[in-house]
Design a protein that fits this description.
By secondary structure, the protein is of the alpha+beta class. The chain contains 14 helices and 21 strands. A hairpin with a 7-residue loop joins strand 12 and strand 13. The N terminus is likely disordered.
């Protein structure tokens, strides 16, 4: 008890100190040549991501020795934009579990039934360690979160399908259970605990996290933060829990996290974190290619936020074969022109703009016209067309009757602020709870032929983008929607 009180006092002191220091907390930027990376290797990496048909790059940071040597935030994305990280969230939960273990309030050998005794008959034998390594024996239930209000009750009321500790089965709800355990023990959500003990002492102040209908952090997904904050977290893992001379998380726990418990053909698993293809490297890994990669051999952290339709191998392979493989960890010489070209590339990088015409006579016919929409995946109830010189704007009324105007440029991105929420690939109950706006779009448009207008809309501080194709050949416009995450296009008939 005395140990816990002393640790809480130290955390309070750290918290007060961090509040004063947070405004000046920044990651130093240095030339890649100072750590032995030729600027051309960064350019090759940038090119591989920007030109790939398999992915849509949002943010990339390469950090060596705790300093940024390269970063790319292609337009319409910006450095300060936050990003939802899907299952990268799991690694943060593992750190929160480690804090409670460090405090002596939890052991990985504790039975889950200790914290949920009312379900002892169905979860007998399940240890915290089994849940950390996705070997609990629970049957995966992917759609449960989209339908149920009480996730703990629904999940734990079912019989086990395998003996605990014997069979790996990846499920985000397992991480949610860890979040629920931490909240039961501490009386704080995982986010509140991490804010107090980790984020604020590090000067990280931009983190939010989705909540379930019962007010528990979703755990297995839903963390929302900037790429710079992700890079700082990766550096904490690289430094085995130490920050500015203070051990925020025990080195022992970080070592335990980064120990292989499940062997899976170059995708070995630790405590809510994956072993990489590159020797000794580990990664927090989220859907559609969200990564915080820690590479001790090179003293390197790489953050990648994107919307990928691959399984991650191409993007990770390009990282290994450029900046990782060719980092010498010692200064090299390069021409000033090479560095200047790299920095110019970073300043001017953009995702592809739509090609086509900037004007069509149909603009006169449809300008100012409003159309109702049937129930659809976008959650839009009506749209109104607004045309002006080299600009197209769409007034959208959403399911909550909030009006947003999405402005779009011709051969340029135009930013708009939404009144509501962005389009999202997850349909979980209570989604976006715990996440505050405002949200933004970056959009462009181009006429494709006599009857077809296309609009590309990026939700720039989220993850999603949509390509809207308006077909004006019928009595009312028909809209085909293509999402950047893997799915089939769908059509909305206007009324």
């Amino acid at each position: 008890m005395i140990k816990v009180r002393i640790k809480s006092l130290l955390c309070a002191i750290l918290l007060m100190a961090s509040v004063c220091a947070v405004a000046t907390t920044k990651i130093q930027r240095v030339a890649p040549t100072s750590v032995g990376i030729d600027p051309q290797q960064l350019t090759l990496l940038y090119d591989s991501l920007l030109t790939s048909e398999l992915t849509e790059l949002h943010h990339l940071i390469v950090m060596v020795d705790g300093k940024i040597v390269g970063e790319l935030h292609p337009a319409p994305f910006k450095t300060e934009h936050r990003h939802t990280l899907y299952s990268v969230s799991k690694t943060f939960v593992a750190v929160a579990v480690g804090l409670v273990v460090d405090d002596g309030l939890l052991s990985v050998d504790d039975k889950l039934s200790k914290f949920f005794p009312e379900y002892a008959s169905t979860i007998e034998g399940v240890r915290i360690k089994d849940v950390l390594t996705m070997r609990s024996g629970f049957k995966t239930e992917g759609g449960m979160r989209n339908k149920q209000q009480d996730w703990v009750d629904y999940y734990l009321s079912r019989p086990l399908y395998a003996e605990p500790g014997t069979r790996y089965s990846y499920d985000s709800i397992e991480t949610y259970l860890l979040s629920a355990v931490v909240q039961k023990i501490t009386g704080k959500t995982v986010l509140e605990l991490l804010n107090e003990r980790v984020f604020l002492p590090m000067g990280i102040t931009d983190v939010e996290w989705e909540l379930c209908p019962k007010g528990i952090v979703t755990g297995g997904w839903g963390i929302y933060m900037s790429a710079h904050s992700q890079a700082l977290f990766g550096q904490l893992l690289l430094q085995k829990g130490e920050w500015n001379g203070i051990q925020l998380v025990s080195e022992k726990w970080i070592d335990e996290m980064m120990t292989v418990y499940v062997v899976r053909d170059a995708n070995d698993y630790g405590y809510q974190i994956w072993l990489c293809e590159y020797p000794g490297a580990w990664r927090a890994d989220g859907a559609f290619g969200q990564y915080i990669i820690v590479i001790p051999q090179k003293n390197m952290v790489v953050v990648l936020n994107q919307c990928s339709r691959s399984k991650g191998w191409p993007e990770r392979g390009n990282i290994w074969n450029t900046v990782v493989k060719n980092c010498l960890n010692c200064p090299i010489e390069a021409t000033p022109a090479g560095l200047d070209a790299l920095y110019k590339y970073e300043e001017t990088a953009s995702l592809p703009l739509l090609k086509g015409d900037n004007y069509n006579d149909l603009e006169k016919k449809y300008n100012g016209k409003t159309f109702k929409l049937p129930k659809n995946k976008l959650g839009w109830k009506s749209i109104k067309f607004n045309f002006s010189d080299n600009c197209f704007a769409l007034d959208v009324i959403d399911a909550e009757n909030k009006k947003s105007t999405i402005s779009m440029g011709y051969d340029e991105w135009i930013e708009s602020q939404l009144a509501g929420y962005p389009h999202y690939s997850i349909g979980a109950q209570n989604r976006f709870s715990g996440i505050t706006g405002p949200f933004y779009t970056g959009a462009c448009y181009a006429w494709q032929n006599d009857n077809s207008l296309q609009a590309k809309v990026h939700y720039t501080n989220w993850v999603t983008s949509i390509l809207l194709t308006f077909d004006f050949s019928g009595k009312t416009p028909e809209i085909t929607v293509s999402e950047n995450f893997p799915s089939k296009p769908f059509t909305i008939m206007t009324e």
